[in-house]
Design brief:
mainly alpha; 0% strand; disordered C terminus
Length: 409
């Protein structure tokens, strides 16, 4: 993999830390700003909504600039809103900073995905996606638990300051190592028009993969957003265990993304089918055994690997399916996964607000993966029926035995 892809992963690490860190901070934010835990959880949904809206919008906007210029502009904006979020005492202002930060994150990731795919070559999109998303998994391993630890020791605002500081070396690295690329739009630009790229959405394969990505990511975020209260109030572990559990989820996610990068380009279907079936079983088992500390620790690790392994493979398949949209493909992938990122915490907040208990989001995660399996299985069965050869019809015409008439019994 070109070194520039790993430097893009450094910026994705800072952004992934921001996106996921609220799972260890919701109680602190809720107590400090005087809102409920489900309301604090909506900060994750707001970030995801901003990613959904921002991914295609920012991808279109970035066509006017070089890829390096667009990446730097998005990252500067992302840094600035985290400084504002760390300073505010208003939940409404914090919510706005999350949306603006999500718009910047969405634009960055949309451009970074297509940049990484181009740098890696036409047949290595899975490896490029894995290398880039490695930044997200490292955020889960180190950034998110560190954010939870900072929140525990110095308050949730310190985690926002840390994300701003992490973005500074990423800015310098991108300015130094990422080529400007063909992103600058000019009158002779050979790329298809925006409308031409949007027509790629008419592809059934692309629409299906986008839907599956949204469902699987929704399942991941539904439980992950409320993992801290689940671990402390159902499993019975102390608050000091929260960074450890988050780190285990991150270690699993790193392993899952690494494996997906090796397999996704050559055997995506077996990985998706087998991984999704295991993921469904894992969520159900977690819901049943969440009160047992050993089971929780083991399943958080396993579910992190399965969730990100399946998710990274789906992202690479979106990039393959959107080959007619060379600049918006990353926007499509980012938007789909953040539809799930908004849907999951919202559904989890609903079942929590309904008084169904802290295990309820895990059951919702299992339901979302079950729906993904049902939709994907139905589409696969239809495709196989459509491509199956027509059965041959035996004919007795010209048979010397019966001269075209059925034989006698």
């Amino acid at each position: 993999m070109p070194f520039a892809i790993h430097l893009l992963g450094l910026a994705v690490f800072a952004q992934g830390t921001s996106e996921f860190m609220l799972s260890g901070l919701v109680s602190g934010i809720a107590g400090d700003l005087g809102v409920s835990i489900p309301a604090a959880g909506h900060l994750t949904s707001a970030f995801a909504v901003g990613m959904v809206v921002g991914a295609p919008l920012m991808a279109v906007l970035s066509r006017r600039f070089s890829r390096r210029g667009a990446l730097l502009a998005f990252l500067v904006t992302f840094l600035a809103v985290h400084v504002a979020g760390a300073l505010t005492t208003s939940f409404a202002v914090l919510l706005v900073t999350r949306v603006v930060g999500a718009l910047a994150n969405a634009g960055f990731l949309a451009v970074a995905l297509v940049t990484a795919a181009d740098l890696a070559g036409p047949h290595a999109k899975g490896r490029a996606t894995s290398a880039l998303l490695g930044g997200v998994t490292v955020a889960c391993v180190a950034g998110v638990p560190a954010g939870a630890l900072l929140g525990e020791v110095w308050g949730w605002r310190s985690a926002f300051w840390a994300v701003a500081l992490l973005s500074l070396p990423a800015l310098a690295a991108i300015a130094w190592a990422v080529p400007a690329g063909p992103g600058s739009a000019g009158p002779d630009d050979a790329r298809p028009s925006v409308l031409g790229e949007l027509r790629a959405l008419r592809s059934p394969r692309l629409r299906l993969t986008l839907l599956l990505g949204a469902l699987v990511n929704g399942a991941t975020f539904c439980t992950f957003t409320y993992l801290e209260p689940l671990v402390t109030r159902v499993t019975g572990l102390g608050s000091g265990w929260v960074p450890v559990v988050l780190a285990l989820f991150g270690i699993g996610s790193f392993a899952g993304v690494s494996l997906a990068g090796r397999v996704a380009d050559v055997r995506p279907l077996p990985l998706l089918v087998g991984g999704s079936c295991a993921l469904l079983g894992g969520w159900v088992l977690f819901a049943v055994t969440a009160a047992h500390p050993v089971a929780t620790v083991v399943l958080v690790l396993v579910l992190g690997a399965l969730s990100f392994g399946v998710g990274a493979t789906l992202i690479s398949q979106i990039l393959y399916a959107a080959s007619e949209a060379p600049t918006l493909a990353g926007g499509f992938a980012t938007a789909a996964f953040n539809v799930g990122g908004a849907l999951g915490p919202w559904c989890g907040g609903l079942v929590l607000s309904a008084g169904l208990g802290h295990r309820a989001p895990v059951w919702v995660s299992a339901l979302l993966v079950g729906v993904a399996l049902a939709v994907g299985g139905t589409a696969l069965a239809r495709r196989r029926r459509a491509t199956a050869p027509a059965p041959s019809v035996p004919s007795f015409r010209g048979s010397g035995r019966c001269g075209g008439t059925p034989p006698r019994p």
